[in-house]
Specification:
The complex is a heterodimer of chains A (about 350) and B (about 525).
Chain A lengths: L2 H12 L1 H19 L4 H13 L4 H23 L7 H18 L4 H30 L3 H21 L31 H19 L1 H11 L1 H6 L4 H24 L16 H11 L4 H24 L5 H15 L6 H12 L1
Helix pairs in contact in A: 2-14, 3-13, 4-8, 4-11, 4-12, 4-13, 5-6, 5-7, 5-11, 6-7, 6-11, 8-9, 8-13, 12-13, 12-14, 13-14
Chain B lengths: L10 E12 L2 E12 L3 E5 L6 H8 L7 E6 L2 E3 L4 H6 L2 E4 L11 H6 L5 E2 L2 E2 L1 H15 L14 H14 L4 E5 L7 H16 L3 E6 L2 H7 L2 E6 L2 E7 L5 H9 L17 E10 L2 E9 L2 E6 L6 H9 L6 E6 L2 E2 L5 H6 L2 E4 L3 H5 L6 H6 L15 H14 L16 H13 L5 E5 L7 H16 L3 E6 L2 H7 L2 E6 L2 E7 L5 H8 L4 H12 L1
Parallel strand pairs in B: 3-10, 3-11, 6-9, 9-10, 15-20, 15-21, 18-19, 19-20
Antiparallel strand pairs in B: 1-2, 1-4, 4-5, 7-8, 11-12, 13-14, 13-16, 16-17, 21-22
Helix pairs in contact in B: 14-15
The chains are: A mainly alpha (about 350), B alpha/beta (about 525).
Chain lengths: ~350, ~525
């Protein structure tokens, strides 16, 4: 290894991210031993269940939603803004896409595009409302975005249970999308073109972050808001833009959910898996860096899907993976890292 | 070099062979410091010379890698400031550690309250503060709220706090940084009387004048080592400065005046919070200095001019354009650059790379094309400025937080000068900057002026204002209270005006220069 690469590897190994993940895995193992399970079998079940032939499809479709929400939360987070209204924006995007899908007079392929755009617009507008509350009424974004989330979820729930309800069904779900109003899937898996859209969004985020003046302003605002403001970056405008983008992505995740299996809006199906919170965790773990967000989203998708598999094949409940997630967050919040001594000592030993 | 010998019982503080290593630097290299009882001992050195580290070791905030600490002849090794306090050693930090919402008496007795039936005895606390204040000539109202006090009095509260806890040795870190000349004089009178009654004072400072006037002996650090031990009465400012920098430096030079051209900045009747009815003009090829004790509205005035604070009254024109209510960005586009007072909180993002810090403000103009900001352009721009302004940094990729104060200031000034803007606002350009770097920064500002730009300079350092400014305005309580030409602005006159006195001369001077 070149010295530069070695330094960077040592840096990555020493980073709080590595520490948190390892600590999560280790403490998770203690939990497993405590409940009488074999940690190695359990972790094996997580890995084979999520990355094996049977699980990878499920991991990728879960990953689509997790990555989408992680990006939605990472983009404002890059500027130090926290959007806690992901659920509301996502659900609003979903129900808007459902309405568009059900009532659009256009041919099916165009309806799909329209439904995606409508879902994004709904999420963007709703998130922009939270930004306006902060900009003009002084309500902190954290509060405005979170509180606005609840009425949106309730509204979608009402629509799915009453006006749009599938006649004759006992479930709180809308009618199914018309024939052909669906995102193309890969083979007969549940993975759709939605994954591509989300990965494209990640690529666009990476490009903006690294190579545009706008991305530079976002990063500098996140690192020191007063510095950015001093040089003329207008905070209110930036908040509004970033929240709109964030909401659009959340809305996209909702629309993708409706345009994939089971091709309808099912009340609670978007919020129950906790994509918003997993996404937030992933964004925090990556400190909102574009590439890191992709990697950490995949990591959490593996945990989520693998947890289910572990529950099936071993006696361990899948809540363990949530414990793991929580431990990672706690350690990350404490920003712990391995002492540099451990690595410098090893380096000197290598040199000898 | 061997430390001067003294009778053991005379020695209040003795540090021997203190060595402290941080990753990548040797902050203290076998430092000996001997402070006799009853003396005022100045510890001098540039930033990064190791003064703060040495005092942190003494005060128990850092543990030395090697060396011994003796207080009053006993070996000690404090592991926390409260240990140090218990051994009779107290420290007044540069930023005061006081509760603004509590009274003077409550602050003074904090953590060592007089008790009665297990409760704080407020009457006794007030009595105690009054006694201490009287005994040491530190007049201050025990019932005043600390937040309402001027800085000079807050410092007294800090000193009272140490005396209340029975400190025999007081360490003061840059105590005059925020004081008016007369407040500083008052402080030294107090320190001298404390020394006279047998207490010991260690003064950490980089101000030569007050060391010469107020101390008994001087220890100078450079690069973590002791480079000089001097007796104040037998030394000179030049000798100390040479020891601090390692070369001869020219101090307090008054630079030649510029040749003013057209009006660039015209301010009339400007009002914003803490600023009232300020009128001033700055011409091309001219440096206008604003002198004043910190907190008299200078920062607010500059922020309003820079577009970071709303203007509530008056007009501001920049090269004929009305910018009274323009945004910060519009102002920059119309030709304004700004070096703010607070380098860390406002002027840079310490966690971002040097290259990113140097790009700020240029990222929408010279460096970008249709919204794209190529990393190669950012790096090339950084390399150009690093070279042009002599910023010492291994590569532009390191975070700005790795730079020393002087270097960071070079980064900031370089970035702003590179805009080539007709008007430059500069606040405290050399605060906390090494003597060596100060000259460099002053030369840069003068060259900028001579290239035909207008400069508005705010500084608390009188020598800086006198050396650079072609005209001097004095701000007091939010107003411009005096205007002087370059030749009239002697130290005494300015000092008086900064303290709010001498109204007659002020009016006369203002008439002459504003007409």
């Amino acid at each position: 290894m070149t010295p530069d690469l070695r330094n960077r590897t040592a840096g990555a190994l020493r980073s709080p991210v590595t520490f948190s993940v390892l600590a999560g895995v280790l403490i998770g193992a203690l939990f497993l031993v405590g409940t009488g399970a074999d940690p190695i079998t359990a972790y094996q079940a997580v890995l084979t269940g999520s990355l094996g032939a049977d699980g990878i499809g499920s991991t990728l479709s879960t990953g689509t939603s997790v990555l989408g929400m992680a990006l939605a939360l990472a983009i404002p987070l890059r500027a130090g803004l926290i959007n806690l209204g992901g659920d509301g924006q996502m659900v609003l995007g979903g129900i808007t896409a459902a309405v568009t899908g059900l009532y659009s007079p256009l041919p099916a392929p165009l309806t799909v595009v329209l439904a995606l755009l409508a879902g994004m617009a709904a999420g963007a507008l709703y998130a922009a409302l939270a930004a306006l509350c902060e900009n003009h009424l002084g309500v902190p974004l954290l509060v405005s975005s979170l509180l606005l989330s609840y009425p949106a979820v309730s509204l979608a729930s009402y629509l799915a249970r009453y006006p749009l309800k599938e006649p004759g069904s006992s479930l709180p779900q809308t009618r199914a999308m018309p024939e052909g109003v669906a995102l193309p899937a890969f083979g007969d898996s549940t993975v759709t073109v939605g994954l591509l859209l989300v990965v494209l969004a990640a690529a666009a985020y990476w490009f903006t972050d690294r190579r545009t003046a706008f991305g530079y302003e976002i990063r500098m605002t996140g690192l020191n808001g007063r510095f950015a403001a001093y040089a003329g970056v207008e905070r209110r405008g930036l908040t509004l833009k970033l929240m709109s983008i964030s909401g659009a992505l959340a809305g996209l995740v909702g629309a993708i959910g409706v345009l994939s299996f089971p091709y309808r809006f099912v009340d609670g199906s978007l919020t129950a898996p906790g994509y918003t919170w997993t996404g937030l965790t992933a964004a925090l773990l990556a400190m909102a860096a574009p590439f890191g967000t992709v990697v950490s989203s995949f990591f959490f998708a593996v945990l989520q899907v693998g947890g289910l598999a572990m529950e099936r094949t071993t006696e361990v409940p899948r809540e363990l993976t949530q414990v793991l997630q929580a431990i990672v967050i706690v350690f990350l919040a404490a920003r712990l890292r391995f002492p540099s001594r451990w690595f410098s000592r090893r380096k000197t030993e290598e040199a000898v | 070099m061997t430390p001067p010998r003294a009778e053991a019982h005379d020695i209040a503080v003795e540090l021997r062979g203190i060595t402290k290593r941080f990753p990548g630097t040797l902050a203290n290299d076998c430092v000996d410091l001997t402070v006799r009882r009853g003396e005022i001992h100045a510890l001098m050195g540039e930033n990064g010379a190791g003064k703060s580290t040495l005092m942190s070791v003494l005060y128990g905030m850092e543990r030395a890698d090697a060396g011994t600490v003796r207080i009053d002849g006993r070996d000690v090794g404090f592991s926390s400031p409260s240990d140090a306090m218990a051994a009779g050693l107290g420290m007044v930090h540069q930023s005061f550690k006081l509760f603004d919402s509590l009274t003077v008496a409550e602050n003074v007795v904090y953590a060592a309250e007089p008790r009665r039936f297990g409760l704080v005895d407020r009457a006794a606390a007030r009595r105690r503060v009054r006694e201490l204040a009287e005994e040491h000539g530190l007049a201050v109202d025990p019932d005043a709220r600390v937040g309402d006090l001027p800085v000079g009095l807050r410092q007294r509260v800090e000193i009272l706090k140490l005396l209340h806890r029975g400190a025999r040795t007081l360490v003061l870190d840059e105590p005059t940084a925020v004081l008016t000349p007369s407040e500083a004089d008052a402080l030294f009178a107090v320190l001298k009387s404390l020394a006279a009654e047998g207490r010991t004072v260690i003064l950490v400072t980089h101000k030569l004048r007050e060391v010469l006037e107020g101390s008994d002996r001087v220890t100078v650090l450079r690069d973590g080592r002791v480079v000089a031990r001097l007796v104040t009465a037998e030394t000179s400012a030049d000798e100390i400065a040479a020891a601090m920098t390692g070369r001869a430096v020219e101090l307090d030079r008054i630079h030649a005046a510029g040749t003013p051209g057209d009006v660039v900045l015209d301010v009339s009747g400007l009002g914003t919070s803490a600023v009232h009815d300020v009128g001033l003009t700055v011409h091309a090829g001219e440096i206008v200095g604003i002198a004043g004790v910190a907190g008299n509205g200078q920062s607010e005035l500059i922020e309003a001019l820079a577009g970071l604070r709303p203007v509530t009254a008056g007009h501001v024109t920049l090269q004929g354009h009305d910018i009274t209510h323009a945004s910060a960005t519009e102002r920059r586009l119309k030709g304004l650059a700004y070096v703010p007072e607070d380098r860390h909180a406002v002027g840079t993002a310490p966690a971002a790379s040097v290259a990113d810090n140097l790009a700020m403000g240029h990222h929408r103009t010279s460096l970008s094309h249709r919204g794209l900001l190529p990393p190669t352009a950012v790096r090339a721009h950084a390399r150009r400025l690093v070279e042009r302004f002599g910023i010492k940094v291994s590569t532009p990729e390191v975070p700005a937080s790795a730079l020393s104060g002087g270097n960071l200031q070079k980064l900031l000034i370089g970035r702003e000068l590179a805009h080539d803007a007709p008007l430059l606002l500069v606040e405290q350009p050399t605060r906390g900057v090494d003597i060596g770097a100060i000259q460099n920064i002053h030369d840069q500002l003068l060259a900028y002026r001579d290239a035909g730009h207008a400069v508005l300079l705010v500084s608390a350092e009188l020598s800086e204002i006198r050396g650079l400014a072609d005209r001097v305005l004095v701000m007091y309580e939010g107003r411009i209270t005096a205007t002087y030409g370059k030749d009239e602005a002697d130290e005494r006159t300015l000092g008086l005006a900064m303290a709010g006195g001498d109204t007659g001369a002020r009016a006369k001077a203002a008439d002459r220069h504003d007409s």
